[in-house]
Specification:
Length: 70
């Protein structure tokens, strides 16, 4: 049994810029790109070098600001 158009693959998000590219704990980091929510309605988690960062403000599908963990 099959059903046409029952599932749609979404393109992966694309990060175009991270600024600054280095810093200490509590540094604010801006991440720019396209489809950063990955087809969802919000951000679930952001990591910097494998460490969970705190989302600051109201993220959009094209820009996130996060605070690096201390």
């Amino acid at each position: 049994v099959t059903r046409a158009n029952a599932f749609t693959y979404l393109a992966a998000g694309n990060i175009t810029n991270v600024s600054p590219n280095a810093g200490q704990g509590t540094t604010l980091v801006t991440i720019d790109g396209n489809s950063l929510f990955g087809g969802g309605a919000s951000v679930t988690q952001v990591t910097l070098s494998g460490i969970v960062a705190q989302v600051v403000g109201t993220p959009t599908n094209s820009r996130l600001v996060v605070r690096a963990a201390a």
